[in-house]
Design goal:
About 40% of the residues lie in helices and about 20% in strands. By secondary structure, it is α/β, with parallel strands linked by helices. It folds into two domains: about 120 residues, Transcription Regulator spoIIAA, CATH 3.30.750; about 70 residues, Arc Repressor Mutant, subunit A. The strands form three sheets. It has a five-stranded mixed β-sheet, with helices on one face. Strands 2-4 form a two-stranded parallel sheet. Strands 8-9 form a two-stranded antiparallel sheet. β6 and β7 form a beta hairpin. α6 packs across α7. The radius of gyration is 17 Å and the shape is elongated.
Length: about 190
Protein backbone atom coordinates (compact mmCIF):
# COMPACT_ATOMS: atom_id res chain seq x y z
CA UNK A 1 0.00 0.00 0.00
CA UNK A 2 1.23 3.47 -0.80
CA UNK A 3 2.22 5.40 2.30
CA UNK A 4 -1.12 6.90 3.09
CA UNK A 5 -2.23 9.40 5.63
CA UNK A 6 -4.28 8.13 8.55
CA UNK A 7 -6.84 10.69 9.62
CA UNK A 8 -8.70 10.01 12.87
CA UNK A 9 -12.34 10.95 13.36
CA UNK A 10 -13.03 10.98 17.10
CA UNK A 11 -16.56 9.68 17.50
CA UNK A 12 -16.51 11.11 21.04
CA UNK A 13 -16.53 14.60 19.50
CA UNK A 14 -20.22 14.01 18.72
CA UNK A 15 -21.23 13.59 22.37
CA UNK A 16 -20.38 15.27 25.67
CA UNK A 17 -21.18 12.18 27.74
CA UNK A 18 -19.75 9.42 25.50
CA UNK A 19 -23.20 8.17 24.47
CA UNK A 20 -24.42 8.18 20.86
CA UNK A 21 -28.14 7.62 21.07
CA UNK A 22 -30.14 9.12 18.20
CA UNK A 23 -30.58 8.30 14.53
CA UNK A 24 -30.32 12.04 13.72
CA UNK A 25 -26.89 12.14 15.35
CA UNK A 26 -25.92 9.14 13.23
CA UNK A 27 -26.99 11.07 10.12
CA UNK A 28 -24.85 14.02 11.24
CA UNK A 29 -21.91 11.66 11.83
CA UNK A 30 -22.37 10.13 8.38
CA UNK A 31 -22.31 13.57 6.70
CA UNK A 32 -19.19 14.57 8.67
CA UNK A 33 -17.44 11.32 7.75
CA UNK A 34 -18.40 11.81 4.11
CA UNK A 35 -16.76 15.28 4.15
CA UNK A 36 -13.64 13.84 5.75
CA UNK A 37 -13.52 11.04 3.17
CA UNK A 38 -13.80 13.52 0.28
CA UNK A 39 -10.84 15.50 1.63
CA UNK A 40 -8.71 12.41 2.23
CA UNK A 41 -5.92 11.90 -0.34
CA UNK A 42 -5.78 8.72 -2.40
CA UNK A 43 -4.20 5.99 -0.30
CA UNK A 44 -5.51 7.67 2.84
CA UNK A 45 -7.29 5.97 5.69
CA UNK A 46 -10.12 7.43 7.73
CA UNK A 47 -10.01 5.88 11.20
CA UNK A 48 -13.32 5.98 13.08
CA UNK A 49 -12.22 5.97 16.71
CA UNK A 50 -14.91 4.63 19.07
CA UNK A 51 -12.58 4.00 22.02
CA UNK A 52 -14.00 6.84 24.16
CA UNK A 53 -17.62 5.96 23.41
CA UNK A 54 -19.50 4.33 26.28
CA UNK A 55 -22.64 3.38 24.39
CA UNK A 56 -24.16 3.79 20.92
CA UNK A 57 -27.60 2.67 19.83
CA UNK A 58 -27.98 0.44 16.81
CA UNK A 59 -30.07 3.22 15.15
CA UNK A 60 -27.13 5.64 15.50
CA UNK A 61 -24.71 3.02 14.19
CA UNK A 62 -26.87 1.97 11.22
CA UNK A 63 -26.90 5.61 10.02
CA UNK A 64 -23.22 6.21 10.68
CA UNK A 65 -22.08 2.98 9.03
CA UNK A 66 -23.62 4.06 5.73
CA UNK A 67 -20.13 5.46 5.14
CA UNK A 68 -18.91 1.88 4.54
CA UNK A 69 -21.28 1.66 1.56
CA UNK A 70 -20.29 5.14 0.39
CA UNK A 71 -16.55 4.35 0.28
CA UNK A 72 -17.23 1.75 -2.44
CA UNK A 73 -18.20 4.51 -4.91
CA UNK A 74 -15.73 5.30 -7.69
CA UNK A 75 -15.06 8.81 -6.36
CA UNK A 76 -13.45 7.25 -3.28
CA UNK A 77 -11.19 4.85 -5.19
CA UNK A 78 -8.06 4.17 -3.16
CA UNK A 79 -9.52 5.50 0.12
CA UNK A 80 -10.09 3.30 3.13
CA UNK A 81 -12.04 3.16 6.37
CA UNK A 82 -11.03 1.47 9.60
CA UNK A 83 -12.75 1.31 12.93
CA UNK A 84 -11.01 1.37 16.30
CA UNK A 85 -12.77 0.09 19.39
CA UNK A 86 -12.14 -0.95 22.97
CA UNK A 87 -13.15 -4.62 22.83
CA UNK A 88 -13.82 -4.63 26.57
CA UNK A 89 -16.90 -2.52 25.84
CA UNK A 90 -19.07 -5.54 25.03
CA UNK A 91 -22.31 -3.53 24.92
CA UNK A 92 -20.95 -1.28 22.17
CA UNK A 93 -19.47 -4.26 20.31
CA UNK A 94 -22.83 -6.07 20.39
CA UNK A 95 -24.68 -3.00 19.04
CA UNK A 96 -22.02 -2.63 16.36
CA UNK A 97 -22.43 -6.26 15.28
CA UNK A 98 -26.20 -5.77 15.07
CA UNK A 99 -25.84 -2.62 12.92
CA UNK A 100 -23.30 -4.35 10.65
CA UNK A 101 -25.69 -7.24 10.13
CA UNK A 102 -28.58 -4.87 9.42
CA UNK A 103 -26.52 -2.90 6.87
CA UNK A 104 -25.07 -6.09 5.36
CA UNK A 105 -21.53 -4.72 5.43
CA UNK A 106 -18.10 -6.03 6.32
CA UNK A 107 -15.48 -3.87 8.00
CA UNK A 108 -12.00 -3.94 9.49
CA UNK A 109 -11.72 -3.31 13.19
CA UNK A 110 -8.68 -2.71 15.38
CA UNK A 111 -8.57 -2.75 19.13
CA UNK A 112 -6.48 -0.49 21.34
CA UNK A 113 -3.53 -2.92 21.05
CA UNK A 114 -3.54 -2.94 17.25
CA UNK A 115 -5.11 -6.40 17.00
CA UNK A 116 -7.09 -6.74 13.80
CA UNK A 117 -10.37 -8.48 13.02
CA UNK A 118 -13.19 -8.41 10.51
CA UNK A 119 -16.79 -7.87 11.51
CA UNK A 120 -19.52 -9.00 9.13
CA UNK A 121 -19.96 -12.05 6.95
CA UNK A 122 -17.31 -13.26 4.53
CA UNK A 123 -17.24 -16.59 2.72
CA UNK A 124 -14.62 -19.08 3.88
CA UNK A 125 -12.70 -18.56 0.62
CA UNK A 126 -12.54 -14.80 1.17
CA UNK A 127 -11.58 -15.24 4.83
CA UNK A 128 -8.72 -17.56 3.87
CA UNK A 129 -7.57 -15.20 1.12
CA UNK A 130 -7.66 -12.22 3.47
CA UNK A 131 -5.64 -14.08 6.07
CA UNK A 132 -3.07 -15.03 3.41
CA UNK A 133 -2.76 -11.38 2.29
CA UNK A 134 -2.27 -10.28 5.92
CA UNK A 135 0.34 -13.02 6.44
CA UNK A 136 2.35 -12.32 3.26
CA UNK A 137 2.07 -8.52 3.18
CA UNK A 138 1.89 -8.16 -0.60
CA UNK A 139 0.35 -10.61 -3.05
CA UNK A 140 -0.69 -10.93 -6.66
CA UNK A 141 -3.42 -13.03 -8.27
CA UNK A 142 -0.75 -15.45 -9.45
CA UNK A 143 0.46 -16.05 -5.89
CA UNK A 144 -3.11 -16.57 -4.62
CA UNK A 145 -3.80 -19.00 -7.46
CA UNK A 146 -0.72 -21.05 -6.68
CA UNK A 147 -1.26 -21.05 -2.92
CA UNK A 148 -4.92 -22.11 -3.06
CA UNK A 149 -4.56 -24.21 -6.24
CA UNK A 150 -7.24 -22.23 -8.08
CA UNK A 151 -7.29 -20.57 -11.53
CA UNK A 152 -5.76 -17.10 -11.66
CA UNK A 153 -9.17 -15.70 -12.71
CA UNK A 154 -10.71 -17.07 -9.48
CA UNK A 155 -7.81 -15.67 -7.46
CA UNK A 156 -8.24 -12.31 -9.15
CA UNK A 157 -11.96 -12.33 -8.33
CA UNK A 158 -11.27 -13.04 -4.66
CA UNK A 159 -8.78 -10.20 -4.41
CA UNK A 160 -11.06 -7.82 -6.28
CA UNK A 161 -13.94 -8.60 -3.89
CA UNK A 162 -11.76 -7.96 -0.84
CA UNK A 163 -10.55 -4.71 -2.39
CA UNK A 164 -14.10 -3.58 -3.21
CA UNK A 165 -15.00 -4.20 0.44
CA UNK A 166 -11.94 -2.05 1.28
CA UNK A 167 -10.50 -4.80 3.43
CA UNK A 168 -7.21 -4.69 1.48
CA UNK A 169 -5.47 -2.06 -0.62
CA UNK A 170 -4.49 -2.32 -4.27
CA UNK A 171 -1.63 -0.78 -6.24
CA UNK A 172 -0.83 -1.16 -9.91
CA UNK A 173 2.80 -2.09 -10.57
CA UNK A 174 4.77 -2.74 -13.71
CA UNK A 175 6.08 -6.22 -14.49
CA UNK A 176 9.75 -5.73 -15.34
CA UNK A 177 10.10 -8.89 -17.42
CA UNK A 178 7.13 -8.25 -19.71
CA UNK A 179 6.59 -4.50 -19.50
CA UNK A 180 2.96 -5.16 -18.55
CA UNK A 181 1.05 -4.22 -15.42
CA UNK A 182 -0.40 -6.16 -12.51
CA UNK A 183 -2.29 -5.38 -9.33
CA UNK A 184 -0.49 -5.95 -6.06
CA UNK A 185 -2.71 -6.25 -2.99
CA UNK A 186 -1.68 -5.44 0.59
CA UNK A 187 -3.28 -5.52 4.01
CA UNK A 188 -4.43 -2.30 5.59
CA UNK A 189 -2.08 -1.18 8.36
CA UNK A 190 -2.74 -1.76 12.03
CA UNK A 191 -2.10 1.06 14.44
CA UNK A 192 -1.46 1.33 18.14
CA UNK A 193 -2.44 4.73 19.50
Amino acid sequence: MEDGIIHTFEMASLSEDGNLLKRELGERAFLGLKRELKNLPKGGILLLDFRRIKYATSTFLVETLRIFDEVKNAEYEGKYLLLKLNLKNEELLDCLKLAIKERGIVLSLFDENGRWMVLGELSRALQETLEFVREKGEVTSNQIGKHFNIPISAASNRLKQLYQLRLISRDEQSIPTSGGWQFVYSPLPTTKE
